[in-house]
Write a structure and sequence with these properties.
alpha+beta, 5 helices, globular
Amino acid sequence: MQRPHPTEHQKSLKPNDFIVSKTDIHGKILYGNRTFIEISGYEEHELLGAPHSILRHPDMPKIVFKLLWDRIKNKQEIFAYVKNLSKDGSYYWVFANVTTTLHKDGSIRDFHSVRRKPSELALSIIPGVYAKLLDAERTGGMDASAKLLDSILAEKGVSYDQLILSLQQ
């Protein structure tokens, strides 16, 4: 499937909207609720079995996804702000909570994500932070982006989780 060309058109979730999806351990979509399907612009049959990265917007720094995958593969939840790309090229921001579902033996069965509308505070800060991380990534790779993120967190005296959660209050 060909990736859409990003446009400047933004879609927004309503305050009470929730996007829910489930992926297998390789990131392929197993389930998406109606809100997920509608905002993505894809038909359900186009999403099911597709990699969740089909929605990855080029404005997203890779370090955010590395953090996400590191956490969920270690059976830890993560909260993150994500800019997604719809089929028509428009974009939408979400405040995501991703968790791991386990089999009875403790092995990972799948990943579950619930996303909602980000706060105005988050939307006034996160795009600028992500732009800086992307610039660092373009010139020095993901290591440079990770170092910059660590520097930003150290300067603010907070952990990644503290920063992300404080912006959604």
